[in-house]
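Please check this record.
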Amino acid sequence: MNTLRMQLFWAHLIVIAVTMSVFMATIYLVTPRIRDRLVRQEQSGQPLPNPRPGNGRPAPPPKLLPQRVYDAAVWQATLIASGIASVVALLVSLVSARVIVRPLHSVISASRRVAAGDFRLIEVPMGAHEIRELALQFNYMAAALKDAEQRRAALIGDVAHELRTPLASIQGYAEGLIDGVVLPHEKTYMIIRTEAARLSRLVDDLQSLSRAESGSLVLHLAQYDFNSIVDRVVDLLQSQLIEKQIKVTITHQHDSEPVRCDNDRISQVVVNLVVNAMRAVDMNGNIQIATLQQHQMVCCMVSDDGIGIDAAHLPHLFERFYRVDPSRTRATGGAGVGLTISRAIVLAHGGNLTVQSDGLGLGACVTLALPRA
């Protein structure tokens, strides 16, 4: 298996094998030559080098001179072979380390590029499985960072656009009143008040979104009946439903569905889901709301027979300021943060929020799931 562990194992094995081979070959080749040289020195009466310097032993008697020659030859050959083998081992280790580490250089240089704002992907190198996996994960991280940077830039633009519309309206009417072009009238003041309220709601939405995404959302948890929450929300929206002549059908699998939640926050989520369904259907449309149990979760399914959602939009529905229909304004379609805030609230409760649709014209179904108390 081509893993980093196996590469390191084989690299060490190669270093050991090459080192031992060089050592043994050097001993085999050098020892006879040193021995012959020492024998000639012995025969010529020259003193032989002490094979063990500093041991203070007296010179052996003449009959042991051949053994002394052999010991001196082995000692000198061992020193030479050790030096050569060490140099070879160092060179082989450097080469093997360079081969193993080379793919990491591209990741290191790419990390510097990412830190500078360049999110280009790197080519996945051939080599150890761990290094390839590191390169793949790095590319995944770079793509995520690039997407996050694009979302940040888009968020700034979206916030600026959402703030500009009511501010421009308020500024225009204020200047008109000052210049006398617009007459002070109750209708004028109502327009300014309405735009100010829109601006205030947007700021509240952004604040709620910031708290939800940062995990600082304060929840006041207690046990409630989920069925009662749903019924109360529908009663609250009854006048709007009657105005659009929308028929709402509520079905409860059980008489009571106890959940531990923040009543206000979960009511806010259910309101958002029902309002979104109301916007999706036409006059005389139908909305079905059902509460039921699935495993250890209590679910609220809000279905409609409205415009439906194209499959390409489904992965982005919970993104900030994302609208399926970009032409819808805040007055008619909201700022595009309702589902984002709702999902953050539900996740803070340990639940989940999902959307399903079979396509355009086939309606949609949003499922809110909370742990059963």
Summary: The mean pLDDT is 78.
